[in-house]
């Protein structure tokens, strides 16, 4: 189940992560996605506004398009502060190593908890995946 959602996001290249900033929504493009210990992970930097928004309210939504389908994922993001989790993400994205390292105090990874993903299209019934 996690693998199918990972594959969709990975193939789409860019997905959009929505957070709450006070009482306003904030959406931005993301590109990092990883599976570690059978959990789906995303990555950001602690200095970014998105990190502060997730800390204040970890409920997020992710959206992406792939061909004629789209995915929407509701989840709670949980920080995994283990070096191994950060290192796994950076190993999956070598291009990030010019900006981040597992021990820089800035690199931050989150896994999706209580997630519901819905894959939709105009041609098929929606498919729901929970993890």
Supply the key terms:
47% strand; 131 residues; alpha+beta; Pnp Oxidase, Chain A; 8-stranded antiparallel sheet
Q: What order do the helices and strands come in, and which of them pair?
A:
Elements: H1 2-12, E1 15-21, E2 24-30, E3 34-36, E4 39-45, H2 49-56, E5 59-66, E6 69-79, H3 83-92, E7 107-121, E8 127-130
Antiparallel strand pairs: 1-2, 1-5, 3-4, 4-7, 5-6, 6-7, 7-8
Describe the structure.
The protein contains three helices and eight strands, in the order αββββαββαββ. It has 131 residues and is α+β, with helices and mostly antiparallel strands. It has one domain (2-130): Roll (Pnp Oxidase, Chain A), CATH 2.30.110.10. It has helices at 2-12, 49-56, 83-92, and strands spanning 15-21, 24-30, 34-36, 39-45, 59-66, 69-79, 107-121, 127-130. Strands 1, 2, 3, 4, 5, 6, 7 and 8 form an eight-stranded antiparallel beta sheet that branches.
CATH H level: which superfamily?
Electron Transport, Fmn-binding Protein, Chain A
Low-confidence stretches: none
Radius of gyration: 14 Å
| Overall strand count | 8
Distance between the termini: 7 Å
The fraction of residues in strands falls at over 45%
For the record, the count of structural domains works out to 1
Name of the level-1 CATH class: Mainly Beta
Report helical residue fraction. 10-25%
**What kind of assembly state do the chains in view correspond to?**
single chain
What is the CATH architecture term? Roll
């Amino acid at each position: 189940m996690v693998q199918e959602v990972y594959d969709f996001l990975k193939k789409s290249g860019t997905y959009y992560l929505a957070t709450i900033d006070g009482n306003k929504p904030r959406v931005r493009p993301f590109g990092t996605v990883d599976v570690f210990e059978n959990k789906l992970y995303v990555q950001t930097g602690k200095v970014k506004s998105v990190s502060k928004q997730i800390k204040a309210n970890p409920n997020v939504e992710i959206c992406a398009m792939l061909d004629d389908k789209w995915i929407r994922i509701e989840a709670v993001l949980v920080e995994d502060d283990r070096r191994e989790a950060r290192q796994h993400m950076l190993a999956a994205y070598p291009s990030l190593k010019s900006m981040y390292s597992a021990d820089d105090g800035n690199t931050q990874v989150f896994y999706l908890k209580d997630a519901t993903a819905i894959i939709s299209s105009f041609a098929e019934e929606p498919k729901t995946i929970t993890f």
